[in-house]
Design goal:
By secondary structure, the chain is mainly beta. It has one helix at residues 181-189; strands at residues 3-6, 12-16, 30-47, 50-57, 61-64, 69-85, 93-97, 100-104, 109-112, 116-120, 123-130, 136-142, 150-152, 158-164, 167-174, 198-201, 206-209, 213-219, 223-229, 237-240.
Length: 255
């Protein structure tokens, strides 16, 4: 059964499993990222009088612009779909290449093959799609026995879905807006019984991180997750980090 994972005002995230047939949630008037975790799909794109059939397999996907005519002929897969509605801002894709960013426009659709890998001390991220004023989709792999930074975001909100492995998730530590980094760390250090805020998660589990919410993920087993978010990917305030990484963009991870 199709799962709606987020009702975030900025984007909608869905999980599709093998055998799901009702795909009416994929709207014509949204900007769409469809990415296959496993399985295969055939999508028919219509452009004026021309029709093109596109076959996608595991680790591939497609971006469809609003109001592009499409039809899904075959959908036998486990996939993640992220949608956002077009506002009055131009749809621009941000491309991250060798530590440099560029902006590109898309005509009708773009295939996703061999997306950008961003290396992390604890594993890596696959940056599937990144739109300047709309949504982001990433795939996250963390190796067993690691943890991400203890962090929060000032502008970015996100939804995470675990598809394999197990993790403990620390969340629900809410901060007042415009708190300083030092103030946030002091608030965290004063929390008693911090373990009561850690939630065990496994395949199929999902959660949201809102702005000014301290969070951290600990890998119990090596795990894979998908993350949909708003576009502020450099908005990371790191309070603690096993590798003493600074807050924000770290160029060496993007080379």
């Amino acid at each position: 059964m199709v799962k709606t994972l987020s009702s975030n005002i900025n984007y909608m995230m869905h999980q599709i499993e093998f055998g799901d047939e009702n795909l009416n949630f994929i709207k014509n008037d949204t900007l769409k990222t469809i990415f296959l975790h496993k399985g295969n799909v055939q999508i028919e794109i219509k452009n004026n009088s021309r029709v093109k059939k596109i076959d996608l397999v595991e680790e591939e996907g497609i971006i469809l612009l609003p109001n592009v005519e499409f039809q899904i002929n075959k959908f036998d897969c486990f996939a993640v779909v992220v949608q956002s509605y077009k506002d009055n801002k131009e749809i621009i894709e941000i491309v991250d290449s060798n530590g440099e960013r560029s902006e590109e426009t898309i005509d009708y659709y773009r295939l996703i093959k061999n997306p950008k890998i961003v290396n992390k001390p604890w594993g890596h991220e696959v940056w599937i799609s990144w739109f300047k004023n709309h949504h982001v989709l990433k795939k996250i792999y963390m190796e067993k026995g690691n943890k991400c930074s203890l962090q929060y975001h000032e502008e970015k909100s996100e939804t995470n879905l675990i598809v394999s492995g197990k993790a403990n998730v620390l969340k629900d530590i809410k901060l007042n807006k415009n708190v300083t980094k030092d103030e946030a760390l002091n608030i965290f250090n004063e929390i008693e019984n911090i373990n009561d805020l850690i939630i065990p998660m496994g395949p199929g589990d999902f959660w949201d991180n809102q702005t000014y919410e301290i969070h951290r993920v600990f890998s119990i087993d090596s795990y894979t997750a998908y993350e949909a978010s708003t576009p502020q990917l450099d908005d990371v305030i790191r309070l603690k980090d096993d590798n003493n990484r600074i807050s924000g963009f770290i160029e060496s991870e993007h080379q």
